[in-house]
Amino acid sequence: SQQGEEDPQALSIQEGENATMNCSYKTSINNLQWYRQNSGRGLVHLILIRSNEREKHSGRLRVTLDTSKKSSSLLITASRAADTASYFCATADTGGFKTIFGAGTRLFVKA
Amino acid sequence: DAMVIQNPRYQVTQFGKPVTLSCSQTLNHNVMYWYQQKSSQAPKLLFHYYDKDFNNEADTPDNFQSRRPNTSFCFLDIRSPGLGDAAMYLCATSRVGGINEQFFGPGTRLTVL
After folding, report:
1. B96 vs chain A: nearest CA distance in angstroms?
2. Residue of chain A minimizing CA distance to B5
3. What are the chain A neighbours of B55 within 8 Å (beta carbons)?
């Protein structure tokens, strides 16, 4: 069963703008991860935030986690055309072995 | 560079003809996963191995089997592919389950004729 649900399903912005994607989940988690997938390729890990963390940064990425609302957001600042991809959130259950992916947000950055 | 390798990248098979997809890793990770991903959908976990311990997802069809002969290699066997099995198959590894990040291979695109 799908754990995470993401919105929007698709997002189209101009280069230089910020992109925000949201993820909601249903059960208790050990951590939440964000991945990126270019068309027809494997997934690339972007950032992991643990359940006891509220915010994390990595370069132009900022991730927040609100465990009381069971939600997370991924912010990409100053977007570039090369950021065009699908972005997935994934939650690891408290047992730690099973990672369930959300449906993903397709981001299109126009040059 | 340490990595996850999947072969072949593209596989075409006939309806009902068994097919095997291969994954190898140089990361020496304990856990290896197989995911199925259909167009515009999330990757769906089929099963995973923690070392030699096999863990099947409850909704993974019996048609899908897996083998892990050693730490480095893991195979996905589809015994009788149907048209609905056409998808991208992704292999991933991690050090200790979902606590750590997963490293994905490039995927194998399976076409069933």
Report:
1. 7
2. A42
3. 97
Residue from the list B44, B98, B105 with its beta carbon closest to the beta carbon of A42: B105
Position A2 scores a pLDDT of 46
pLDDT of residue B17: 97
Residues B105 and B4: beta-carbon distance below 8 Å: yes
Q: Which of the 8 DSSP states describes residue B97? A: G
Are A79 and A16 contacting, i.e. CB atoms less than 8 angstroms apart? yes
d(Cα B60, Cα B36) in Å, to the nearest integer? 10
Measured between beta carbons, the chain A residues lying within 8 angstroms of B106 are 41-42
Q: Going along A1-111, which residue ranges are E strands?
A: 5-7, 10-14, 19-24, 31-37, 43-50, 55-58, 61-66, 71-76, 85-92, 99-101, 105-110
**Spans of chain A, pLDDT less than 70:** 1-4, 94-97
Reported as a single tens digit per residue, the pLDDT across B63-112 is: 999 999 999 999 999 999 999 999 999 999 998 766 678 999 999 999 99
pLDDT of residue B96: 76
Q: Do A92 and B109 touch (CB under 8 A)?
A: no
